[in-house]
Design brief:
14% strand, 3-stranded antiparallel beta sheet, Arc Repressor Mutant, subunit A, DNA-binding, homodimer, 127 residues
DNA sequence: ATAAAGCACTTTGCAATGCAAAGTAAAAAG
DNA sequence: CTTTTTACTTTGCATTGCAAAGTGCTTTAT
Protein backbone atom coordinates (compact mmCIF):
# COMPACT_ATOMS: atom_id res chain seq x y z
CA UNK A 1 0.00 0.00 0.00
CA UNK A 2 2.99 2.20 0.33
CA UNK A 3 4.82 1.69 -2.89
CA UNK A 4 5.45 -0.65 -5.72
CA UNK A 5 8.07 -2.73 -3.95
CA UNK A 6 7.24 -5.38 -1.45
CA UNK A 7 10.36 -5.59 0.67
CA UNK A 8 10.02 -5.59 4.45
CA UNK A 9 12.08 -2.44 4.83
CA UNK A 10 9.30 -0.51 3.20
CA UNK A 11 7.03 -1.67 5.99
CA UNK A 12 9.19 -0.27 8.76
CA UNK A 13 6.77 2.49 9.46
CA UNK A 14 8.58 5.58 10.60
CA UNK A 15 5.99 6.26 13.22
CA UNK A 16 6.97 3.17 15.22
CA UNK A 17 10.56 2.95 14.13
CA UNK A 18 11.67 5.93 16.17
CA UNK A 19 13.30 4.52 19.34
CA UNK A 20 11.32 6.70 21.71
CA UNK A 21 8.02 5.65 20.17
CA UNK A 22 9.11 2.04 19.93
CA UNK A 23 9.59 2.09 23.68
CA UNK A 24 6.26 3.76 24.28
CA UNK A 25 4.38 1.28 22.12
CA UNK A 26 6.12 -1.69 23.67
CA UNK A 27 5.28 -0.53 27.16
CA UNK A 28 1.67 0.07 26.21
CA UNK A 29 1.52 -3.37 24.65
CA UNK A 30 2.02 -4.79 28.12
CA UNK A 31 -0.45 -2.47 29.79
CA UNK A 32 -4.04 -3.25 28.81
CA UNK A 33 -5.28 -0.78 31.43
CA UNK A 34 -3.19 2.04 30.03
CA UNK A 35 -0.38 4.00 31.60
CA UNK A 36 -0.27 7.49 32.98
CA UNK A 37 1.95 10.14 31.47
CA UNK A 38 4.26 9.92 34.46
CA UNK A 39 4.40 6.14 34.42
CA UNK A 40 5.31 6.16 30.75
CA UNK A 41 7.86 8.87 31.29
CA UNK A 42 9.79 6.86 33.83
CA UNK A 43 9.25 3.52 32.10
CA UNK A 44 10.54 4.88 28.79
CA UNK A 45 13.23 7.07 30.25
CA UNK A 46 12.04 10.07 28.31
CA UNK A 47 11.86 13.73 29.19
CA UNK A 48 8.49 15.41 29.59
CA UNK A 49 8.85 17.32 26.37
CA UNK A 50 9.89 14.31 24.37
CA UNK A 51 7.14 12.10 25.67
CA UNK A 52 4.56 14.80 25.00
CA UNK A 53 5.73 15.25 21.43
CA UNK A 54 5.86 11.53 20.69
CA UNK A 55 2.42 11.00 22.19
CA UNK A 56 1.00 13.74 20.02
CA UNK A 57 2.41 12.00 16.95
CA UNK A 58 1.03 8.65 18.05
CA UNK A 59 -2.36 10.18 18.79
CA UNK A 60 -2.51 11.86 15.41
CA UNK A 61 -1.80 8.49 13.86
CA UNK A 62 -4.60 7.07 16.01
CA UNK A 63 -2.22 4.53 17.50
CA UNK A 64 -3.01 5.62 21.04
CA UNK A 65 -5.77 7.46 22.82
CA UNK A 66 -5.47 9.75 25.80
CA UNK A 67 -7.94 10.18 28.61
CA UNK A 68 -7.48 13.30 30.70
CA UNK A 69 -9.05 13.67 34.11
CA UNK A 70 -8.32 15.06 37.54
CA UNK A 71 -7.07 12.89 40.36
CA UNK A 72 -6.58 14.54 43.73
CA UNK A 73 -7.06 17.90 42.04
CA UNK A 74 -4.19 17.22 39.67
CA UNK A 75 -4.36 16.56 35.98
CA UNK A 76 -3.73 12.98 35.01
CA UNK A 77 -3.44 11.76 31.44
CA UNK A 78 -3.77 8.06 30.84
CA UNK A 79 -2.63 6.64 27.54
CA UNK A 80 -4.16 3.58 25.94
CA UNK A 81 -3.13 1.57 22.95
CA UNK A 82 -5.91 1.66 20.37
CA UNK A 83 -7.04 -1.48 18.60
CA UNK A 84 -5.75 -0.06 15.37
CA UNK A 85 -2.49 0.89 17.05
CA UNK A 86 -1.99 -2.60 18.34
CA UNK A 87 -2.63 -4.17 14.95
CA UNK A 88 -0.35 -1.72 13.16
CA UNK A 89 2.37 -2.12 15.73
CA UNK A 90 2.22 -5.91 15.49
CA UNK A 91 2.59 -5.57 11.74
CA UNK A 92 5.59 -3.34 12.26
CA UNK A 93 7.11 -5.86 14.66
CA UNK A 94 6.63 -8.60 12.13
CA UNK A 95 8.43 -6.52 9.52
CA UNK A 96 11.21 -5.92 12.03
CA UNK A 97 11.45 -9.61 12.67
CA UNK A 98 11.80 -10.29 8.97
CA UNK A 99 14.55 -7.72 8.72
CA UNK A 100 16.31 -9.25 11.68
CA UNK A 101 16.05 -12.81 10.39
CA UNK A 102 17.28 -11.61 7.04
CA UNK A 103 20.34 -10.10 8.69
CA UNK A 104 20.83 -13.23 10.77
CA UNK A 105 20.79 -15.37 7.64
CA UNK A 106 23.35 -13.14 5.94
CA UNK A 107 25.55 -12.99 9.01
CA UNK A 108 25.41 -16.75 9.31
CA UNK A 109 26.21 -17.32 5.64
CA UNK A 110 29.92 -17.05 6.29
CA UNK A 111 29.97 -19.44 9.18
CA UNK A 112 27.49 -22.20 8.43
CA UNK A 113 25.47 -23.33 11.39
CA UNK A 114 22.05 -24.74 11.88
CA UNK A 115 19.51 -22.03 11.42
CA UNK A 116 17.53 -22.33 14.61
CA UNK A 117 14.81 -19.81 14.94
CA UNK A 118 11.14 -19.45 15.24
CA UNK A 119 8.71 -16.82 14.20
CA UNK A 120 8.35 -14.45 17.07
CA UNK A 121 5.23 -12.63 16.02
CA UNK A 122 3.36 -14.38 13.29
CA UNK A 123 1.41 -16.48 15.73
CA UNK A 124 0.36 -13.47 17.75
CA UNK A 125 -0.70 -11.18 14.97
CA UNK A 126 -4.28 -10.79 14.01
CA UNK A 127 -5.95 -8.13 11.99
CA UNK B 1 28.92 4.71 26.84
CA UNK B 2 26.07 6.78 25.62
CA UNK B 3 24.27 7.75 28.77
CA UNK B 4 23.51 6.80 32.30
CA UNK B 5 20.77 4.34 31.44
CA UNK B 6 21.43 0.86 30.25
CA UNK B 7 18.29 -0.02 28.36
CA UNK B 8 18.56 -1.58 24.92
CA UNK B 9 16.72 1.29 23.26
CA UNK B 10 19.68 3.50 24.02
CA UNK B 11 21.82 1.14 21.97
CA UNK B 12 19.72 1.46 18.84
CA UNK B 13 22.34 3.51 17.10
CA UNK B 14 20.75 5.99 14.77
CA UNK B 15 23.35 5.35 12.15
CA UNK B 16 22.11 1.81 11.57
CA UNK B 17 18.52 2.33 12.59
CA UNK B 18 17.61 4.30 9.52
CA UNK B 19 15.81 1.87 7.18
CA UNK B 20 17.89 2.75 4.15
CA UNK B 21 21.12 2.17 6.02
CA UNK B 22 19.78 -0.95 7.69
CA UNK B 23 19.23 -2.40 4.25
CA UNK B 24 22.66 -1.37 3.06
CA UNK B 25 24.39 -2.89 6.07
CA UNK B 26 22.41 -6.10 5.82
CA UNK B 27 23.25 -6.52 2.18
CA UNK B 28 26.92 -5.86 2.83
CA UNK B 29 26.84 -8.38 5.66
CA UNK B 30 26.15 -11.05 3.06
CA UNK B 31 28.77 -9.80 0.61
CA UNK B 32 32.30 -10.40 1.88
CA UNK B 33 33.68 -9.30 -1.49
CA UNK B 34 31.85 -6.01 -1.41
CA UNK B 35 29.14 -4.64 -3.64
CA UNK B 36 29.28 -2.02 -6.33
CA UNK B 37 27.29 1.17 -6.06
CA UNK B 38 24.90 -0.04 -8.71
CA UNK B 39 24.47 -3.46 -7.16
CA UNK B 40 23.66 -1.87 -3.82
CA UNK B 41 21.31 0.58 -5.44
CA UNK B 42 19.16 -2.15 -6.97
CA UNK B 43 19.49 -4.53 -4.02
CA UNK B 44 18.38 -1.85 -1.57
CA UNK B 45 15.84 -0.24 -3.81
CA UNK B 46 17.28 3.19 -3.25
CA UNK B 47 17.73 6.17 -5.54
CA UNK B 48 21.21 7.26 -6.55
CA UNK B 49 21.10 10.33 -4.39
CA UNK B 50 19.85 8.51 -1.35
CA UNK B 51 22.39 5.74 -1.60
CA UNK B 52 25.18 8.24 -2.05
CA UNK B 53 24.12 10.21 1.00
CA UNK B 54 23.72 7.13 3.20
CA UNK B 55 27.08 5.77 2.09
CA UNK B 56 28.75 9.04 2.99
CA UNK B 57 27.28 8.81 6.46
CA UNK B 58 28.38 5.19 6.84
CA UNK B 59 31.85 6.03 5.58
CA UNK B 60 32.22 8.92 7.98
CA UNK B 61 31.27 6.52 10.76
CA UNK B 62 33.92 4.14 9.41
CA UNK B 63 31.31 1.42 9.05
CA UNK B 64 32.11 0.91 5.38
CA UNK B 65 34.98 1.65 3.03
CA UNK B 66 34.80 2.54 -0.64
CA UNK B 67 37.21 1.63 -3.38
CA UNK B 68 36.93 3.64 -6.55
CA UNK B 69 38.42 2.51 -9.84
CA UNK B 70 37.69 2.47 -13.53
CA UNK B 71 36.23 -0.53 -15.26
CA UNK B 72 35.77 -0.33 -19.01
CA UNK B 73 36.47 3.39 -18.85
CA UNK B 74 33.63 3.90 -16.41
CA UNK B 75 33.89 4.76 -12.73
CA UNK B 76 33.05 1.92 -10.39
CA UNK B 77 32.77 2.26 -6.64
CA UNK B 78 32.85 -0.90 -4.58
CA UNK B 79 31.68 -0.77 -1.00
CA UNK B 80 33.02 -3.01 1.73
CA UNK B 81 31.89 -3.56 5.27
CA UNK B 82 34.71 -2.64 7.64
CA UNK B 83 35.64 -4.86 10.55
CA UNK B 84 34.51 -2.16 12.91
CA UNK B 85 31.31 -1.73 10.94
CA UNK B 86 30.52 -5.40 11.15
CA UNK B 87 31.10 -5.50 14.90
CA UNK B 88 29.06 -2.37 15.54
CA UNK B 89 26.27 -3.57 13.31
CA UNK B 90 26.13 -6.93 15.05
CA UNK B 91 25.87 -5.09 18.35
CA UNK B 92 23.02 -3.04 16.93
CA UNK B 93 21.28 -6.19 15.74
CA UNK B 94 21.59 -7.70 19.17
CA UNK B 95 20.00 -4.61 20.67
CA UNK B 96 17.23 -4.86 18.09
CA UNK B 97 16.69 -8.48 19.00
CA UNK B 98 16.36 -7.57 22.65
CA UNK B 99 13.81 -4.92 21.81
CA UNK B 100 11.89 -7.37 19.69
CA UNK B 101 11.90 -10.11 22.30
CA UNK B 102 10.82 -7.57 24.86
CA UNK B 103 7.86 -6.63 22.70
CA UNK B 104 7.10 -10.30 22.05
CA UNK B 105 7.02 -10.98 25.76
CA UNK B 106 4.66 -8.08 26.37
CA UNK B 107 2.43 -9.02 23.48
CA UNK B 108 2.29 -12.58 24.74
CA UNK B 109 1.50 -11.54 28.29
CA UNK B 110 -2.18 -11.26 27.52
CA UNK B 111 -2.49 -14.59 25.80
CA UNK B 112 -0.20 -16.99 27.63
CA UNK B 113 1.64 -19.40 25.37
CA UNK B 114 4.93 -21.15 25.51
CA UNK B 115 7.68 -18.68 24.89
CA UNK B 116 9.62 -20.39 22.15
CA UNK B 117 12.50 -18.42 20.88
CA UNK B 118 16.21 -18.55 20.50
CA UNK B 119 18.88 -15.92 20.48
CA UNK B 120 19.38 -14.90 16.91
CA UNK B 121 22.63 -13.04 17.22
CA UNK B 122 24.39 -13.70 20.48
CA UNK B 123 26.14 -16.77 19.13
CA UNK B 124 27.36 -14.89 16.08
CA UNK B 125 28.66 -11.77 17.69
CA UNK B 126 32.27 -11.30 18.48
CA UNK B 127 34.19 -8.18 19.33
C1' DA C 1 30.79 16.00 -36.35
C1' DT C 2 27.64 16.96 -33.14
C1' DA C 3 23.55 16.26 -30.64
C1' DA C 4 21.13 13.32 -27.57
C1' DA C 5 20.95 9.79 -24.28
C1' DG C 6 22.90 6.89 -20.73
C1' DC C 7 25.76 5.74 -16.83
C1' DA C 8 27.68 6.44 -12.28
C1' DC C 9 27.66 8.97 -9.23
C1' DT C 10 27.56 13.88 -6.13
C1' DT C 11 25.52 18.12 -4.59
C1' DT C 12 21.85 21.13 -3.33
C1' DG C 13 17.66 22.57 -1.07
C1' DC C 14 13.78 22.01 1.43
C1' DA C 15 10.55 20.09 4.41
C1' DA C 16 10.12 17.18 8.33
C1' DT C 17 11.27 16.11 13.18
C1' DG C 18 13.81 14.73 17.24
C1' DC C 19 15.30 16.97 21.20
C1' DA C 20 16.37 20.53 24.73
C1' DA C 21 14.88 24.36 26.94
C1' DA C 22 11.49 27.37 28.16
C1' DG C 23 6.64 28.12 29.19
C1' DT C 24 2.01 27.31 31.51
C1' DA C 25 -1.10 26.30 35.13
C1' DA C 26 -2.47 24.69 39.33
C1' DA C 27 -1.47 22.89 43.93
C1' DA C 28 1.46 22.07 47.87
C1' DA C 29 5.12 23.57 50.84
C1' DG C 30 7.68 26.84 53.46
C1' DC D 1 2.77 35.13 49.80
C1' DT D 2 6.66 33.51 47.62
C1' DT D 3 8.87 29.23 46.19
C1' DT D 4 8.79 24.64 44.79
C1' DT D 5 6.70 20.76 42.79
C1' DT D 6 3.77 18.32 39.60
C1' DA D 7 2.04 17.56 35.12
C1' DC D 8 2.25 18.61 31.27
C1' DT D 9 2.67 21.78 26.40
C1' DT D 10 5.02 24.84 23.30
C1' DT D 11 8.89 26.80 21.01
C1' DG D 12 13.12 26.81 18.46
C1' DC D 13 16.97 25.05 16.56
C1' DA D 14 19.95 21.93 14.49
C1' DT D 15 19.90 17.66 12.16
C1' DT D 16 18.76 14.84 8.19
C1' DG D 17 16.07 12.10 5.01
C1' DC D 18 14.76 12.66 0.44
C1' DA D 19 13.86 14.50 -4.28
C1' DA D 20 15.59 16.99 -7.84
C1' DA D 21 19.18 18.96 -10.18
C1' DG D 22 23.99 18.84 -11.43
C1' DT D 23 28.59 16.81 -13.08
C1' DG D 24 31.60 14.39 -16.07
C1' DC D 25 32.40 10.96 -19.06
C1' DT D 26 30.95 7.64 -22.71
C1' DT D 27 28.14 5.63 -26.07
C1' DT D 28 24.77 5.87 -29.47
C1' DA D 29 22.02 8.06 -33.01
C1' DT D 30 21.72 11.60 -36.91
Amino acid sequence: MNGPNDNPYAHLERIFHEPGRLTIMTNLLGAPDGMTFTELKTACNLTDGNLSRHLKVLEEAKAVTAKKRFVKNRPQTTIFLSQEGRADFMAYLQALETVLLDAAAKAAADKPKKRAHVSLFSHLARA
